[in-house]
Amino acid sequence: MTHLSVEQLLATREPGLEPGVKALRDHLQECPVCQAERDRLAQRVARLKALPALRPGRDHFGAIRLQAARERRARGLRRIAIGTVALAAAVTLAVALGKQMAPAERTLVNPELAEIMGRSRQLERALAGFDQDRAVINGRAVGITSSLEDRLARLDRQIEVVDLMNAEGRQQAMIKLWRERVGLLDALVDVHLTGARYVGF
Amino acid sequence: MDAYRLADAQVVLPRLRAGDPAAQEALFRAFEAPVYNLARRICRTTEDAEDVLQETFLEVFRSIGQFRGDGSLWGWVRTVASSKALMRLRRNKYRVTDELNDEIGPTRGEDTALRMDLEAALERLPETSRAVVWLHDVEGYTHEEIASMMDRTVSFSKSQLARAHARLRRWLGEEVSV
Question: Domain A61-200, what fold?
Fold first, then answer.
């Protein structure tokens, strides 16, 4: 008498009734050898489910949180950049059409603001370099970095809001916020440099 | 199975969508252990499992807006984790050797009834087989779902499961003479 293979036994455990499975189940009902094999299979599965849970050796949330904050910040920056380009295009079009523009819009590409934004981009690139290196930083540095990242996220939301405003003084508000942003990024770079040095020596 | 239910998920979800770090931490603390366990059971090394853990939560935080809440949050997180772990398997270069070993059948050592505990036997399975066993028998995925996640056929998933059980049976010394 031919007994069921492992594959056939597994098939009898699947829900539904595929062609041929009924015959396998009929055989199983009659055959004590296959029933014993089925029970061993069920026990093996139960033991697999009962294996102890493996846990990570260290806490990964700090690193995940930092990376998530960076990604969120990058997405916010992309939105600001797209908004700025769209607004600049609108201004150019309006000027070309000879329309009277508000002073704040005409001076959109303020040299001082452009310079600060350029500095911000440089620092972002430096930080991206640290990310790629996955430099290890100590626990205290992680705490400071988290706090700076949170402040940056809040600041980026403010920049987004101000960027949409069409009021007089918008330009000055933007310069102030972007300066603050460069300051925070500078601090972040410092933390990474100090952290890397701390680990390195 | 929804043993890892995040308390008041409906309250946490809007905060997660807004990128609230406290909500992110609550989600991480609720699901960190089962995600890591799944990743570690599928991946060969702890380093790979830790990478999968990080990639999973980053993906979850990135894509939480796409979770519509019609299933359990754990079910959704687990699917992200399974995909990341399987992606890691595909990326790893030792997969090639692994599949070759899979094709050449049992080694001399396997034919002798070497008894080992289940943990060691599971660890010894080829990666693809181990992933299928874990996803099917422990996590409760169907062969259709596994095939879809692995980008393979349903019969591939079924045959991997059968092979894995045949090996486990032998290695655990469960074979009986008929």
Answer: Four Helix Bundle (Hemerythrin (Met), subunit A) (1.20.120)
What is d(CA B134, CA B41) in angstroms, rounded to the nearest whole number?
A: 7
Domain ranges for chain A, please list them.
6-49, 61-200
> What does the block give as tokens for A195?
């952290």
How big is chain A, counted in residues? 201
**Does CATH number 1.10.10.10 belong to domain B94-178?**
yes
Choose among B125, B24, B107, B6: nearest CA to A71.
B24
CB contacts < 8 A, A to B, total 94
Residue A169, SS3 per DSSP: coil
- A55: chain B residues, CB-CB within 8 Å: 33, 36-37
Distance CA A91, CA A106 (A): 7
Q: A34-71, pLDDT tens digit by residue?
A: 999 999 999 999 999 999 999 998 899 988 988 888 78
Tokens for B14? Answer: 């809007």
Across the interface, whether the CB atoms of B161 and A10 are under 8 A apart is answered yes
Length of chain B counted residue by residue = 178
Q: Which fold has domain B1-92?
A: Rna Polymerase Sigma Factor; Chain: A (1.10.1740)
Q: What digits encode the pLDDT tens for the residues B149-177? A: 999 999 999 999 999 999 999 999 876 55
B-chain CB neighbours of A146 within 8 Å are: 21
ipTM: 0.83
